[in-house]
């Protein structure tokens, strides 16, 4: 059973067990026993504790470290809030907690201590014992940031080049969703998880064969190469869709981030998504789950981990899953599997890991987003189970990938790191694109074809990170070199005809024969090379943090003729992308930040038929200015941010027929977010984003001032959870999601309406024969709203899902 490392006052009451005998254990005698005890006392743990009572502090230190902490004395009150944050030993944490109280402690054995009154040491019988809460990874050196109060998000995340950073120290906006949130939501893909974020939308249907994202109004494309990094490396995560089984954390950095992560393979600039893989924890794990729902899909998952070695330095964790059955979509069946093996070595100075992933998804009648002809009024959305694709259309995807990563502490303040990894994605599919022809909902499944794709990709990075001090300024400097390559092969065989039907009476259509492509010729290959240097300077006991850095990024692409293999166009250019960030912390609860940072996208080629056909545009440099305030009251946190992002846009001048990159899209936004525990039994997660998006420059005067495609003015996500007092272990939850109107065309003459959905859920945690059991159930789209859910950057329109249910049972043996 997975327990959350939460910062809540309830543990001092719930976890405390009264015992009738003293828990003082005589310390072992002899030099060897003394050395062992000294090593245990000096073990480093990550703490993020903010409490107003000593009892709460005792409970949370025990929860974070796995130590048993007893007390028989009356605990005095404390003034204000005690904050214990950072990596330290348990004795060091206790000294901070007990400062000025007249209390101290005595170690009573391995991982155990008891509080004592310095004025009178006595009365240890009848001690109250705070049982440790199991936290995966306890006792194993880990850079994983602790979970925030409530367990849904983490207190920090990985900022690429800058490494792991506390959210209060980060000069950018970052959210890291935990494995606990993933499990409680019953999320099958990372798109499911990211629907918790008001600044993120996944406009493609969950029943399609791929996911796409929009962050701060800009698209993130998983097609072929993929834009999601795995443990900081591009080219490893599955491309079209990513299952959650191997994810410990799913991190989102909002805004351009070329310095932090390098240029994404297809140039996403709205933000970056990173998957932190699961690792074996200190405790053995044998977890099995079974689930049913989202139609008649049934399946299960296994999660197994062990640590080996004298000091538990070797770890192995395996995650596997299989699902099959009909979905809620008409005519659709889905079969999906996952196998993920994670090996790691965690030594005193050297750390290494190996990740291997095999993910597959086969769909019959895969959902396909709709197109709509120009000038046609958007018809009302049909029932969410409507499928415009026939049962003889299909999609089969296979992803295999791996990553080797290592780091070595060459000195106490100098770490050398590096990784190498890659993967292959193979996708075969037969389907078209339903195109709506009129407001009555008639459509034609245009472009019906049999396509075979294969993407081979690999990436390597290496660098050094060091800490040093100059003139009373603490520095954390990092140098990194990166290289990414991919090769795309595809074969296409087009159908001789295209089926047609109607949105509101979509029925079966006789199969249309399409021959398989004879081969998969190489159509393109790309290379991204980067060198980056950044320095974070800390002044006045970390109350002021200044980050400066720059990355030199080279972009090279060759495109090939599918028939002759000859190079049809080449691209080779480079640019330097800087960053400047500042964080000011006037007190321990408030962090004010600002940044200037750039994103990078390969420039377009002038299309066929233009006067400068084939001319390559310089790389598109996206620029962001952002500022905000982050708040942390220990159990509840939040943030407010304002940003402006400007991105170059390529287009053809209708007067001169010349293609150029003189256009510009400007997105201005306000984000308000909240997370954590309002009370000991109520949790909140979510917020709102207001977005003012506009075409501010265009070679076509008629586009000026128009709103870009798929950029709603407002997005709201808010989830609330309540631990009920009437049934122990029962939690009720509800999620409201709202997206305002979106335009489908640049002329702003076609749009989809705003929509709001409500999801309700529950989970129940209990023990049966000493086996922890968790039952989770949810109903999504309770009101069964019929709606168009979103528009991606290619003007594809997705149909929202109908009311559907999910049920799962998880057991730890």
Index terms:
five-stranded mixed sheet; 54% strand; mainly beta; Ferric Hydroxamate Uptake Protein, Chain A, domain 1; Phage tail protein beta-alpha-beta fold; 813 residues; Maltoporin, Chain A; 22-stranded antiparallel beta barrel; 3 domains; disordered N terminus; 44 strands
**Shape designation:** globular
Helix-and-strand structural type: mainly beta
Portion of residues in beta strands equals over 45%
Rg on CA atoms, Å: 28 Å
Overall number of structural domains:
3
Biggest pleated sheet: 22 strands, antiparallel, barrel
- What is the straight-line distance between the termini? 8 Å
Q: Going by CATH, what is the homologous superfamily of the largest domain?
A: TonB-dependent receptor, beta-barrel domain
Helix content: under 10%
The number of distinct helices, counting runs of at least 4 residues, comes to 7
- The CATH architecture term of the largest domain is Beta Barrel
CATH topology of the largest domain: Maltoporin, Chain A
CATH class of the largest domain: Mainly Beta
Q: How many DSSP-defined strands?
A: 44
Low-confidence parts lasting 5 or more residues at pLDDT below 50? Answer: 1-40, 121-139
